[in-house]
Design brief:
The protein has about 350 residues and is α+β, with helices and mostly antiparallel strands. It folds into 2 domains: about 180 residues, Ribosomal Protein S5, domain 2, CATH 3.30.230.10; about 150 residues, GHMP kinase, C-terminal domain (Alpha-Beta Plaits). The chain has 8 helices and 13 strands. It is globular. The chain binds (3R)-3-hydroxy-3-methyl-5-(phosphonooxy)pentanoic acid. (3R)-3-hydroxy-3-methyl-5-(phosphonooxy)pentanoic acid binds next to helix 2 and helix 4.
Length: about 350
Amino acid sequence: LLPDLDTYRSEAPSNIALVKYWGKYGEQLPKNASISYTLKNCKTQTEVILKKRIEADDQFHYEVFLDRELKSSFKPKIDKFLKRIEVYVPFLKSFQFEIHTKNTFPHSSGIASSASGMAALAKCFVVMQASVQPELTETFQAQKASFLARLGSGSACRSTGGKLVVWGKHKDIEGSSGFYGIDYPYEVHNNFRNFRDSILLIDEGEKQVSSSLGHDLMHGHPFAEQRFEQADSNLTKLKPILAQGNFDEFFALVESEALSLHAMMMTSSPYFILMQPNTLQVINKIWEFRKSEEVPVGFTLDAGANVHILYPESSETKVRVFIEDHLLQFCQGEKVIHDQIQF
Ligand code: PMV
């Protein structure tokens, strides 16, 4: 049974990890479990248009467009993805297709679009499959979307659904798996249910180190095993923090995770410093502000120079004024994206 020649649409948000994934093995399986908040405003919207196939060969025939513009530079990553998922989505070579994608955030902003992009594309393929197999349950579809997204970009499996998502087998998280993300299954205090993430764009350029190279550098890394243990133990520690609502403990853990991720890159061979001087300026300003004003606020980082400022809704007014007055000067073009997590 083949899906109709039609347009299939889906969308997926970006996510920001609290406990970071860095290091993988086998077919995109994580060396440690990670957990992330799902964002609301930063997302990718994707359409896949299925067309009649002319070629009789054994290749994928498709084009990718970003904002209606042909983007052949995306193809190597998508080719790899399609090859990995071919066995799970067997009808892809029966068509010729176009992938049209757009992001609600600026593409070259340095915000990783691979998580939301791969998640949205994976969801489109599941929508197609469900069109011919309507008996597939919602749960099956959600799990399959996450499973496929993982094969595009590991962290993408945390972007196909849910608000606080765990990926990677962990002894203290029931139902957790390396194959797909799951909704965090335990109590989350109200303090952490209505959170804000203001993303300061420190460096808008292309990423200096691709995440695939970064993950590879964990093979033979002198601190790899300690890092995987640290991440798993941080997830264990996060459980009571999330249940009890303690901001100080939360930010101490989340900030340490961000700095540990960067420490891995500084101590790999070859080594990289992904922070910029302004990243450090911002971090120091946040620490001063938190101490002097006693406002619950903290930061996290991805594998780049941008800073994610995390805070509860109750600190929003104060933190927004602080960002405007003291941090915008460190951002490229004074750019900041205000996003949120709500559940
Ligand atoms: O999904 P990837 O392969 O692009 O890895 C991204 C990993 C980090 O964003 C740095 C951390 C994480 O857990 O999201």
